[in-house]
Amino acid sequence: MVLERIQKENDIKKLSEQELLVLADEIRTFLIEKISVTGGHLASNLGVVELTMAMHLAFELPQDRMIWDVGHQAYTHKLLTGRKAGFDDLRKHGGMSGFPKRKESDCDAFDTGHSSTSISAGLGYVEAREILGEKHHVISVIGDGSLTGGMAYEALNNASHLDSNFIIVLNDNNMSISKNVGGMSKYLDGIRTADAYTGLKKGIESTLRQIPVAGKPLVSHLKKTKSSIKQLFVPGMFFEDMGITYLGPIDGHDVKALYRTFTEAKKLNNAVLVHVITKKGKGYLPAEEFPSKFHGTGPFAIETGEALAKKEKDTYTDVFGKVICDLAAKDDKIVAITAAMSDGTGLAEFAKRYKKRFFDVGIAEEHAVTFAAGLAAGGLKPVFAVYSSFLQRAYDQLIHDVALQNLPVVFAVDRAGIVGNDGETHQGIFDLSFLSSIPNMTIISPKNRWELADMIRYAIGYEAPIAIRYPRGTAYMGLKEYRKPIEFQTSETIYEEDGIVLFSVGHMMEVAEKVRERLKEIGYNCSLINSRFVKPIDEDILDEMAKEHTLFVTIEENVLSGGYGEKVQDYVMQHHLAVDILKIGVPDEYVEHGNIDILRKEIMLDDESIVKQIITQYIGR
């Protein structure tokens, strides 16, 4: 196998032209085989095999800095830098990350996981290079989907003033996670007609050259001025008009053409954008036909592309999707917003049923939040469904545009808590903290599937900003009989005894029940409270529980700093309640990738570890 000869960075330069063709096929086969077992990001990686190979041929690693936007498409990059063995433990606890990690390899120039960041980071590298007097190339790879993010344009605006080399690779596959939307997508669609444009340009140039005497000078003049042939026949030339040299479009699966283009791009003393056309999922028919399905996939059967683990029960996301559709059927003021995640957030069915009331704004969370504010101010009932870790990107808009005006926007905060294999950049462990600090914001979190449905209905009728926080995965089916109506700032008592009281936040109820059972088995009385409201907390229940209990235990899958437990502790101290406090949550650190159960055990958030902490605290009183 040719792939076996790639043991470290730059080994690809030793291969012949024919061997490069074989290598591309072997990489695709390898990725399909490995990801079918481990799960991971498949379609995006299959689409950039030749592009990555050409970059590794044209540049020197780790001297040159290669920055991948989002980073989920860097599997080939990892293979070409000698990390083939790591794919057996891809995204597993203690194994290789599914994203670039500086601590994993010197060839990973920048940690990534969220979109639209690579140009900004690359520009920082360029300016550092110039100040330090170093000599290396900086290459930022960004997808067309990431160009819907405003941060990319802020960076392009600054990059246009460079007088030193900076290469931006636009990987254009007409997809983000879902299909691209918006003006930039339409603009790139026009440029993608590469054959028509190229043929026209050559035809015009050939005709002009045949004009006696004046022909050749005219062609030369057109090429040297801003009104070049390219400028004339590619509408707008957006990047050129910004002062960024545009090269392309180029077939992203032609290694030779890509290599030649990168070689030319290296010679320019300014920012240059190389526009590359690729096909997401290339080389594996199921991924080509259904790229969204294979964006992030679990283990699957290679022959059919079908998932090996059949979903038997609804996830929290499924419940949200069904309820919001049911409510929208009865209320035509309900509108739904997603940031390029209609499938992931459960809004796909809503998009089909209520096209005029569904808005996919692309990867643009900041815009989504302020857009929702405008919808609410205009008299509608907007629901923004978003992953917890992506909502972080719109913090100022939450404060300034929604909460300051006390507008009734519903935030359906999906993937809250530990999400597992995607790791640090995707763990939803900060939302309770950053949302709680915002005036006018209310935060609720359901214990099970039925309470999520009730909370969505409650939130739709709420007249102020409200966030519903729920996790990834199968919705908890326990405690169905406990379905007290949702009342503002009111929690729910599940079991009431004395001694120890557990205050569980949202989906941690399943763990809290196990904790209570363990405590009962060893002779401790224990009450269990479903907190429901994280902001504002239920102060009445704290006063009530302090009468018969001596230890309050708060359990949340959020960082302890700024979380629910701190709010309870503050109240206890301010009101001099005669109880001790034990706060259980995520420690002050980033949580790496791995199986959720393993990660919880590692950070002492599993039932066994929680019981040990409680006994230690209780006995030590």
What this model shows, in words?
The protein is α/β, with parallel strands linked by helices and 621 residues long. The chain is built from 25 helices and 17 strands. Strands 7-6-8-9-11-10-15 form a seven-stranded mixed β-sheet, with helices on both faces. A five-stranded parallel β-sheet has the order 1-2-3-5-4, with helices on both faces. Helix 5 runs parallel beside helix 6 and helix 21 packs across helix 25. The longest helix is centred in the first third of the chain and has 22 residues, at 17-38. Residues 192-200 and 224-236 have low confidence and may be disordered.
Structure keywords:
alpha/beta, 621 residues, seven-stranded mixed beta sheet
Alpha carbon gyration radius: 27 Å
Count of beta strands: 17
The first-to-last residue Cα distance is 65 Å
Helix and strand content put the structural class at alpha/beta
Strand order of the largest sheet: 7-6-8-9-11-10-15
Helix fraction by DSSP (H/I, runs of at least 4): 25-40%
| Mean of all residue-level pLDDT scores | 91
Name the shape in a single word: globular
